Amino acid sequence: MTDTPTQLFIGGAWVDAADGATLPVDDPATGEIIAHVADAGPKDARLAEDAAVGAQDGWARTAPRARSEILRRAYEIIIDRTDELAHLMTAEMGKPLAEARGEVAYAAEFFRWFSEEAVRIDGSAGILPDGRNRMLLSRRPVGPCLLITPWNFPLAMGTRKIGPAIAAGCTMILKPAPQTPLSSLALAAILKEAGLPDGVLNVVPTSRAGEVGEPLLRGGRVRKLSFTGSTQVGRLLLAQCADTVVRTSMELGGNAPFVVFEDADLDKAVDGAMVAKMRNMGEACTAANRFFVHRSVAEEFGRRLAERMGALVVGPGTRDGVDVGPLIDVKGRAKVEELVADAVERGAQVLVGGRTPQGPGCFYPPTVLADVDPESRLMDTEIFGPVAAILTFEDEDEVVRRANDTPWGLVGYLFTEGLDRALRVSERLEVGMVGLNTGLVSNPAAPFGGVKQSGLGREGGRVGIDEFLEYQYLAVPVQ
């Protein structure tokens, strides 16, 4: 941990907070403090804004190939330092090292993907229908951006936003989650090493989010907000963006349905459930929350899932053989405990798990609940923990209606061997992404995002860079 930066990164320099404040970073497996990081305040936010605004014009005029090569170099450095970054991530947020290494690869791929997209920003030209003018359509960077990332994927959520911003020619202020600032600071150091000019990226960890973020959004110089986090916070940020009409991308909460029809291959369905539920200990917006299983196969599915979940090893993410690390903090674990207790009080059957272990750390066991009452709180709450709640259904129309009966619409999972049903139900699900006979949808080459209160815009894929670009139309008279 001694080589990891712990200061703010502003204008290409490592600096302490103006008022000297620091915030502690805890290891959720032990509760011990592993680092103290500079805690940015309003003055630091202004300095970061000045740096980003000051660097914007020069960065926008930088050749696309130069921006591309910086991203490519950063990709290679991340891959070379996989083990170091994985240990850092495990220390500050708890996921097992195997998962952390997977996230490093996932995070790096966003830089490789957008290094390739940086040189493919194009426009168009043509004569307008009335024949009087030629239209020249070009694309240009939106301008300085505020990027706000969550704690659950601290490296990948940073690269998923930073990559397209760099490729498009935008400067940035990154505010990482206070629980996991170290991964973002390490990423800033890598980008500086890769040749990113001073001021293009500024990183301001803070425990004072309102004091730092709101003045930036209301001040008129930041022209873009990209936020990943809860729907509740997203609504507040949208309101703050309204005053100066800041362009927004919002990747918000989820409440994913996982639908298993009677003709599903149960081996595939259980494998998919393990991924969709247990990736990142269930602390993912894409996590399957509501398992709708056809009545004819519900008992068998529940038995198999409970057997698989019960075999997982819980413990510190650095320990060999561990499958499930701690939840992020005591508050996060308490929420899971309360949701499970409410479901059990309403008659849910605990097939496995359901009891908090004694000892240090924020651990909670993989849990499967059957016969869950649809009125249980976990049916309309993002669980963010290793809990699978099983409900039964009888017919297609019923399960589609129940799957869509939520204000969220990020992702849905569907297991069936019937092609017609697969296409028909996928089209009826009110979600931005569907996993058909698979529990994993995230990929840097695919557009990630949802509908309804799960967000605005898309990240990743060929459209990911569009969020950081504006169109300009130039009319030229035909002579």
UniProtKB/TrEMBL annotation:
<dbReference type="InterPro" id="IPR016161">
    <property type="entry name" value="Ald_DH/histidinol_DH"/>
</dbReference>
<protein>
    <submittedName>
        <fullName>NAD-dependent succinate-semialdehyde dehydrogenase</fullName>
        <ecNumber>1.2.1.-</ecNumber>
    </submittedName>
</protein>
<dbReference type="InterPro" id="IPR015590">
    <property type="entry name" value="Aldehyde_DH_dom"/>
</dbReference>
<dbReference type="InterPro" id="IPR016163">
    <property type="entry name" value="Ald_DH_C"/>
</dbReference>
<keyword id="KW-0560">Oxidoreductase</keyword>
<feature type="domain" description="Aldehyde dehydrogenase">
    <location>
        <begin position="14"/>
        <end position="472"/>
    </location>
</feature>
<dbReference type="InterPro" id="IPR050740">
    <property type="entry name" value="Aldehyde_DH_Superfamily"/>
</dbReference>
<dbReference type="GO" id="GO:0016491">
    <property type="term" value="F:oxidoreductase activity"/>
</dbReference>
<comment type="similarity">
    <text>Belongs to the aldehyde dehydrogenase family.</text>
</comment>
<dbReference type="Pfam" id="PF00171">
    <property type="entry name" value="Aldedh"/>
</dbReference>
<feature type="active site">
    <location>
        <position position="251"/>
    </location>
</feature>
<dbReference type="InterPro" id="IPR029510">
    <property type="entry name" value="Ald_DH_CS_GLU"/>
</dbReference>
<dbReference type="InterPro" id="IPR016162">
    <property type="entry name" value="Ald_DH_N"/>
</dbReference>
